[in-house]
């Protein structure tokens, strides 16, 4: 049950695209299409942004998109906006457990 | 509107016990799996435990197995986490979350558990 690996931080200018990777194993990310992504502002509650690898809950802007290849999932934020500056966590189902990623801080320059 | 309200957190000595509660409203609680997720101060999210809609199936992260017990009372729309033999590394904000499929769709505001002498 090791945490999924994410980059500590990514950054971009407004309007640019950034991609956050989430690397696991064949027992979690690679084994199931149950990868989700959460946005968390400091001191606030996490919010679901992407579920089932690629699906977006209603109300989440379409500039957020998810994908997966093998044991690595990715979250892409296109057209970066100031309000996207937050921490992002991936999470994968792993059969009899869930495992979160290490978290990525997104900075908007 | 979905609401999840955690309670029961506080300061406890190492080796002590606490029971967290999560009162649910705004949805049919008895038909959804639920989870507990924690976040240590300044750290990332860590999944702790999950239970099926009826409480018949439960899962735990390795570090809490044998110490924590998740349960639910569907007649009271409430989720519980009994935490025994608490350690310093259990210090965290504990969130309850409603699961839909493999995702934690709604989260409560969290309750802080501090394990310290």
Beta-strand content bin of chain A: 35-45%
Mean pLDDT of chain A: 96
Residue windows where pLDDT falls under 50 for at least 5 positions of chain A: none
Q: Mean pLDDT score of chain B, rounded? A: 97
Percent of residues in helices of chain B comes to: under 10%
Oligomeric assembly: heterodimer
Q: In whole angstroms, how far apart are the ends of chain B? A: 40 Å
Describe it for me?
The complex is a heterodimer of chains A (109) and B (117). Chain A is mostly beta strands and 109 residues long. Chain A contains no helices and nine strands. Chain A has strands at 9-12, 18-23, 35-40, 47-50, 64-69, 72-77, 86-93, 98-100, 104-108. In chain A, the strands form two sheets. In chain A, strands 1, 3, 4, 7, 8 and 9 form a six-stranded mixed β-sheet that branches. A three-stranded antiparallel β-sheet of chain A has the order 2-6-5, with no helix packed on it. The mean pLDDT of chain A is 96. In chain B, 0% of the residues lie in helices and 54% in strands. Chain B is built from no helices and eleven strands. In chain B, the strands form two sheets. In chain B, strands 2, 4, 5, 6, 9, 10 and 11 form a seven-stranded mixed β-sheet that branches. In chain B, strands 1-3-8-7 form a four-stranded antiparallel β-sheet, with no helix packed on it. The N and C termini of chain B lie far apart (40 Å). The model of chain B has no long low-confidence stretch (mean pLDDT 97). Classes of the chains: A mainly beta (109), B mainly beta (117). Chain A binds chain B through residues 1, 3, 32, 34-36, 38, 40, 45-48, 51-52, 57, 89, 91-93, 96-103, and chain B through 35, 37, 44-47, 50, 59-62, 95, 100-110.
